[in-house]
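## Example pair
The file below holds two records. Each record gives the amino-acid sequence first, followed by its structure token line.
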Amino acid sequence: MIADVLSEATSRMERAVESAKEDFATVRTGRANPQLFQKLIVDYYGSPTPLQQLAALANPEARTLLVTPYDKSALGAIEQAIRDMPNLGANPTNDGTIVRVTMPELTEERRKEYVKLVRGKAEDARVRVRGVRRQVKDDLTALKDEVGEDDVARGEKDLDALTKKHVDLIDEALARKEAELLEV
């Protein structure tokens, strides 16, 4: 029983770590990267649609992304969604068949803003991991009558080790992203 509860906690914490890494990928560094648009939603004929379902993304140069829509009528909506995207700072241009997004050079000030943004995302991920810990700890406490206090105490100790491991994984990913952002 306790092993089942802990395995469920492990999978939920791993999802939180993966979600944090995906969030980090959406923050731009000096290079243009198609992952920047991973969570971009376009208003396509009145329904919110992920950009990956509407267009192909290519990275021909270090600071340029090409967005080629599958449906040319979506060109304006894609361009507007990219323009409205927060924390990007790019101005897309539309030539009638593709949208070209040229990323401006990152200034030192902008890099520091991105570091703050990434740290906030990391803290959100840590909070999710701790929320999982809190819920699982309550589940373990509920099992106290069935399995005994010693087993529950061992389970809580294992849970604390799991929590520390996943928080450390988030911190490692944060350190890598910060180094990437501050690299000139």
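Second record, same layout:
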Amino acid sequence: MATAPVGVSGAVFLPPVQVSVVGVPSPAVTPTNLLHIVVAGPGALLRHHRAGTLRGPLTRLLVLGTVPGVVAGAVIRVVAVPGPSVFRLLIAVLLLPLGGRLCLRTLRRASRRAPAREPSSRAVTRPAMAVGVAGGIYGIGGGSLLGPILVGRGMPVAKVAPAALAATFGTSAVGAGTYALLSLSVTGDIAPSWSLGLACGLGGLCGGYLGARLQPRLPETALRLLLGVPALGVGGLYAVRLRR
């Protein structure tokens, strides 16, 4: 409910709980998180579809960029990034600068915000593919990265959020399928924890629908901070854990 208004599924918050509290092994935490997104995603998407905010080229461009990237990210996660230390470093490096930059720009421009500008197709698909790779490695659909990137470039959160959620759902479905196929040929903890993924997903399904309904009632500055502060906090959490 807290993250759906800004185009984030909430999956960015779950790996610390899944790894540190529940004890899901690595890299099985990644497909478990993707499974959660597949179950949770339709809640917010249904609300946005009814409001007519899923239409437009931005949604198509994000999906076309992130889907190929998430397949590559899943392979990289299994083959080259199996350990928790590299995993935490990657997230800290990705989220800290994104969250910090977005928060600073939002606070500076609270009184004089620059007009939104429409990026070119290439300017959308290239970072979307890179985000897809990162999402396949981390176990997120990419909305937590796409949101700060596009909003940081001046696009309004209300336009970015539905497209980012649609891309998140598509990449998560493809990513979960990729991990399922990899688990047939690669040894180790690769298959998702089905019970945990489904349980988290059911909670996200309800919360996502409520969050999408809440979005039109929140001002743009609040939405930007709601996107930047969690990114900064999660990145900082992983940076601190690297020192332990």
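Notes on the second record: The chain is about 75% helix and 0% strand. The mean pLDDT is 80.
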